[in-house]
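step: validate -> pass
step: tokenize input -> pass
step: predict -> running
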Amino acid sequence: MTSPAEADTEVVPPARRPRPRRGVSLRDAGPPIALVVLFGVFAALSPGFRTVSNVQNVLDAAAVLAVVACGISFVLMTGSIDLSAPGIMGASAITVALLVANNRNDNDLGLVGIVVAVGLAAALGCLSGLALVLLKVPSFMATLGVSAVGLGVATLLFAGVQPNVTDPLLEGWAVERFAGLAHLTWIALACVLVAWAVQRYTRLGRYAFAIGGAEEVLALSGVRVAPYKVAVFTLAGAFYGLAGVMVTSQLGAGLVQAGKGYDFAAITAAVVGGTLLTGGRGGILHSTVGVLLVTVLTNGLVQVGVSPYWQGGVQGLIVVAAVAAAVIPQRRRNQVTK
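step: predict -> pass
step: emit ->
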């Protein structure tokens, strides 16, 4: 029998230290490694793929998608889905085409017209957020409705006559180059850096992760979640609006369908890059890597002679595989599939 004195001096074994979660770092490193491997495979299969001019083409082609992915990443981080990009981009594209120098009217607002178009897009994004937090409409339905509103606005402004842009500033975004890259590519890079800074250093970015990870816990801690959700959708709308302006610069005209397909492409890029659809993981840099993956894949398939008609199917298979790989750890832990 142990005496009280002996009990006081008894050595208690130290608690076992938890092992570091290596799986998280491996999952984060997966997309960059896949990008390097994919680039190496296509470079080996096609000499034209590894030329400097083709690398520049890849970066230029990724510019608009990267800006859209910046916006959609914030929404995905909160655990919501955003399908409003096509409509918002269409409304922004037509608006900017009618406000800068064009063949339809005498407007020549230049940079002010670009700011107004982005502001309209931000307002439409705000509408999505308000529908979510006030009317309790599921995010994918709210944003799908806002996309329809944006397309309606764009169709009314289009009025059956295509506005062709003659503004030198907007045209120069797609035509003029710096260090071998189009100005649009540098604009996209600036957007990625700004979005990353917002995610990393602002309360909005931190709360976006927290909302996606454990919204109930955040609300119980006294944080008003609703304003941050609205702010996230507003910010996403602004990015979509800028992307619509960039498409107008590329085409030299405002089109209602300027944003067609960008919602699915951006979600694909974000998920492939490691941003979870359920929120709480990933972010801007993850999605940017995903954009490069998708763009390199598309360019590489063309370089090796694969029909463009197969590209959509390949992207679909990739996003399904990426989602499946991302949810395997959660499925093992929770033993439930939602």
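step: describe -> Residues 1-24, 333-338 have pLDDT under 50 and may be disordered.
step: cleanup -> pass
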